């Protein structure tokens, strides 16, 4: 089995109901688009888990570096004006 | 500032109940332990298809055949979820399969026992999947994110497996004397190996302490085994099956059953490769892997043809 291969790795995203976001379900191995969709269907949606599937080659995913988490995901608690509760509404104002 | 690449920081994240993701820092021992455990788990799912696959053509009704096919397809799917989870740790699928075929990686030794008759299909679903579920429910809270997510998915699917097995056993126990005897015989053969599925006692388990410290395992072998025993004995009694243990008893104070000592010699003998079906299971895997090589080659050739076409038209 000199040239044996397990094919390429793909990531699978599934939308469970129309209108909802696509959520990462896991990965599959496949050699091309069509096989990736077919394998994703067979592996991840055997019980009505989805109405739509996205697949993309795992090598095209760009992920943030966990070392940068402090910088990237600082909650910016000093910027309270980003929240609606920061603003004072006049007495009696409705529907706002 | 804390050092994000230190084992102390890692342990404090674990202690805080955080999940570890693929790109996060992890000690080498953690990574190794996970690769070993997840791949062993994946191999078990895939090898576990064999004793049941043997019965597809001989299922006693169309209903039973459909159910068995669906169950075995699930096991294949579970193997794939788990292989994917292991791959996030930097090991390739090809390596994992090679380790299975060379015997370097283990799978659950329960699958080295044969499924001799239809009652065995009932006993496998009820006892073997039942034991697996107890372990897997606990692993849903494992500290490694991709493993935990695979477990959540598997647990959702697995409870049908156990119920279909218990249904088979129930039907047989309500059937003829011969059917009842077959069910009891399957119970006698599968009970002890199912209890051994949880692994050695905590005092003799070489990998347990790190796994618990790192929250890979959330409960110990003995705790999980006890849960399974406590659930299963009343289920057996309800349908009239006898536990093949002359000395088990219910401790009224704790609510736990106490069983006779487990024959660990048998467990280690089967792990060492001397179970009834060890060679057959691995040979079968190798045979189908090799016979399927042309499919993988064709898929790659097809892809290359299309890549070439895209380049030409670009």
Describe the structure.
The complex is a heterodimer of chains A (96) and B (314). Chain A has helices spanning 33-44, 69-72, and strands spanning 8-15, 22-30, 52-57. Chain A is of the alpha+beta class. Chain A has a three-stranded antiparallel beta sheet, covered by helices on one side. The longest helix of chain A has 12 residues, at 33-44. Chain A is elongated, with a radius of gyration of 22 Å. Chain A starts with 7 loop residues before the first strand and ends in a 24-residue tail after the last helix. The model of chain A has no long low-confidence stretch (mean pLDDT 90). By secondary structure, chain B is mainly α. Chain B has helices at 7-15, 28-47, 49-53, 62-87, 93-102, 118-139, 145-173, 177-196, 208-213, 221-238, 264-274, 278-291, 293-313; strands spanning 249-251, 256-258. In chain B, a hairpin with a 4-residue loop joins strand 1 (249-251) and strand 2 (256-258).
